[in-house]
């Protein structure tokens, strides 16, 4: 997404993603931190395949939030988006490791000016849209300009935009005469970005979908999701919202310009309304040898976990550590008192929540959405138990004499039992505090749109996958709990709506602070930890996912950022 997908030796973002499911009996049982199981060696199914042709059937329990690269902060869209759009740079996945940022539409990962305030990219020769029209720097600029229209595209990624010296630009629609001065296009192949302050990880930001080219004449605003114009190896042949999507080869894609995508299958056929239980059973039984899924943790159900060791299944399991973390997000506009939020955190039986995700085979409990491998990481020192056991008496003591909500809503995406069952655990835990939790199902395709709307529940699970650069504290800390682009309110990916006059101001000022990655990483971590100790979010689980594929599927690897089968390299025997 970060990388950003939850990405560099430089690496990529993402933003909001899903985590593990399926069963497991090996939950932590002591008060000590559970031994890490997410360092298990990743498994790639039938690697080294290079045969072209055939069709991949992608089974999904719900539609994509959007296919529009300018309105997407979702890992599933980023994954399928690899097939029909390209960006200046690209986060290239390696199973079990943070992605590496490599050139995509650009000839390299950018050239920075001596003062660090400008980055210049040169487009490769011969890159074209699906109709044969050459892709120019103006198409990159317009694609980026659209993402500033947050009144139209409410889910547009903002990490790159926040770094630009944008002069208050609001997109191309309200005032078509307005100019985004932060981006220059001196010729058809050159794009120059002007930054507020130096940003060493900028090549990772350039891998975000903001830099996907969009031809201005083909922009249909919100309807663009129905047929985004392809710059990648595949293009949309048909799209029946909520039911099916079919991608076919783009005849004007030149593999000589694109060493990152193997584009092996002739077609990808997506089924967008198959229940997760059915997907799980079909994949385990190998009833469709050409099938895969992009659903969280391979759509596995809790009762199916033991089947992963079956002789006819084990060789078809792609697995690996993800950069994705799940948190319980608390609506700070409803639950205003930090002590009340902390009491909720202390009362949670996170050990039982891990069981709902499938146990330790599918992840481990976390004390922060950040991790010790990030440059400048500082342990937050949270009072929640590392092994996930509740501290009920401490929670009750915090609530003494407090006026707090006695009824709260827990919203959950309705496509996965683990999300609902987590709500049941929360419901049971908070009952001991005298809080009645009402479970509210939300259609999965609309889940994050609801979290960004006036219908935001009081509590809800959120996922975060790494950041534009998973080695950087900033590219996770800022989106998760930082302010908006002008520092006046909560930020776009800040689902808890956390905003503190002092901490948020400090984060805003850090965006305009120069320094080394180590210096700035520590400063970001310190401010983030101040926010985290106010418990706007409660750390839950970092995912280790398992995804079963059909017996004809080849090169199946779980993307660290995508959290599902990496579509850019997958193939099929036929």
Could you give a quick summary of the protein structure above?
With 574 residues, the protein is of the alpha+beta class.
Explain the overall architecture:
GO terms for molecular function: peptide transmembrane transporter activity. The chain has 574 residues and is of the alpha+beta class. It has 13 helices and 19 strands. α7 runs antiparallel to α9 (417-431) and α11 packs parallel to α13 (517-532). The longest helix has 16 residues, at 517-532.
- Rough shape? globular
Which quaternary structure do these chains form? single chain
Number of strands: 19
CATH third-level topology of the largest domain: Dipeptide-binding Protein, domain 3
Number of domains: 2
Q: How many DSSP H or I helices?
A: 13
Strand order of the largest sheet: 13-17-12-16-14-15
**Unreliable residue stretches:** 1-39
Label the structural class: alpha+beta
Estimated radius of gyration: 22 Å
Compute the separation of the termini in Å: 34 Å
Superfamily (CATH H level) name of the largest domain: Dipeptide-binding Protein, Domain 3
Q: What would CATH call the architecture of the largest domain?
A: Roll
What is the topological layout?
Blueprint: E1 55-59, H1 75-84, E2 89-94, E3 97-103, E4 111-112, E5 118-122, H2 137-146, H3 159-163, E6 183-187, E7 190-194, H4 202-205, E8 234-240, E9 244-249, E10 267-271, H5 276-285, E11 291-293, E12 317-330, H6 338-347, H7 350-357, E13 363-365, H8 392-399, E14 407-413, H9 417-431, E15 436-442, H10 447-451, E16 459-465, H11 474-481, H12 503-510, H13 517-532, E17 537-548, E18 553-554, E19 571-572
Parallel strand pairs: 1-10, 1-11, 14-15, 14-16
Antiparallel strand pairs: 2-3, 4-5, 5-7, 6-7, 8-9, 9-10, 12-16, 12-17, 13-17, 18-19
Pfam families: SBP_bac_5
GO cellular component, one term: periplasmic space
Protein name: ABC transporter substrate-binding protein
């Amino acid at each position: 997404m970060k990388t950003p997908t939850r990405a560099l030796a430089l690496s990529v973002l993402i933003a909001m993603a899903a985590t593990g499911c399926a069963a497991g009996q090996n939950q932590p049982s002591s008060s000590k931190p559970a031994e890490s199981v997410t360092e298990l060696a990743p498994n790639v199914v039938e690697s080294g395949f290079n045969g072209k042709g055939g069709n991949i059937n992608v089974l999904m329990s719900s539609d994509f939030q959007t296919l529009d690269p300018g309105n997407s902060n979702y890992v599933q869209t980023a994954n399928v988006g690899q097939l029909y759009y390209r960006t200046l740079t690209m986060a290239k996945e390696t199973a079990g490791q943070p992605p590496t940022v490599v050139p995509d539409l650009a000839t390299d990962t950018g050239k920075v000016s001596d003062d660090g305030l400008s980055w210049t990219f040169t487009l490769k020769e011969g890159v074209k849209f699906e109709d044969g029209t050459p892709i120019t720097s103006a198409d990159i600029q317009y694609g980026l300009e659209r993402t500033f229209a947050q009144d139209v595209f409410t889910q547009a990624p903002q990490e790159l935009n926040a770094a630009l010296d944008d002069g208050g630009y609001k997109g191309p629609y309200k005032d078509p005469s307005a100019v985004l001065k932060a981006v220059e296009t001196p010729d058809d192949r050159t794009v120059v970005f002007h930054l507020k302050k130096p940003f060493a990880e900028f090549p990772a930001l350039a891998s975000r979908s903001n830099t996907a080219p969009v031809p201005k004449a083909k922009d249909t605003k919100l309807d663009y999701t129905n047929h985004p114009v392809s710059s990648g190896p595949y293009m949309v042949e048909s799209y029946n919202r909520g039911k099916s999507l079919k991608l076919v080869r783009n005849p004007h894609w030149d593999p000589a310009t694109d060493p990152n995508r193997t584009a092996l299958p002739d077609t990808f056929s997506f089924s967008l309304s198959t229940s997760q239980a059915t997907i799980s059973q079909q994949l385990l039984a190998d009833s469709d040898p050409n099938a895969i899924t992009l659903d969280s943790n391979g759509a596995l159900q809790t009762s199916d976990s033991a089947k992963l060791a079956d002789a006819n299944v084990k060789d078809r399991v792609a697995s690996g550590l993800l950069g994705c973390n799940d948190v319980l997000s608390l609506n700070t506009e409803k639950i205003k008192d930090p002590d009340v939020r902390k009491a909720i955190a202390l009362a949670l039986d996170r050990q039982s929540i891990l069981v709902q995700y499938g146990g330790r085979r599918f992840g481990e409990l976390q004390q922060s959405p950040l991790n010790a491998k990030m440059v400048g990481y500082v342990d937050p020192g949270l009072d929640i138990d590392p092994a996930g056991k509740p501290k009920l008496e401490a929670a009750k003591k915090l609530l003494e004499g407090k006026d707090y909500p006695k009824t709260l809503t827990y919203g959950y995406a309705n496509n996965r039992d683990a999300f609902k069952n987590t709500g049941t655990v929360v419901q049971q835990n908070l009952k001991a505090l005298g809080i009645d939790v009402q479970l509210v199902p939300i259609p999965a395709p609309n889940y994050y749109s609801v979290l960004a709307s006036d219908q935001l529940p009081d509590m809800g699970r959120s996922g975060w996958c790494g950041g534009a650069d998973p080695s950087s504290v900033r590219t996770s800390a800022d989106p998760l709990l930082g302010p908006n682009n002008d520092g006046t309110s909560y930020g776009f990916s800040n689902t808890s709506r956390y905003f503190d006059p002092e901490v948020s101001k400090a984060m805003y000022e850090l965006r305009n602070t120069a320094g080394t990655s180590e210096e700035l990483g520590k400063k970001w971590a310190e401010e983030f930890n101040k926010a985290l100790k106010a418990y706007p979010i409660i750390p839950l689980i970092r995912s280790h996912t398992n995804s079963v594929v059909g017996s004809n599927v080849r090169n199946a690897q779980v993307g660290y950022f995508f959290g599902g089968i990496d579509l850019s390299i997958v193939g099929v025997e036929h």
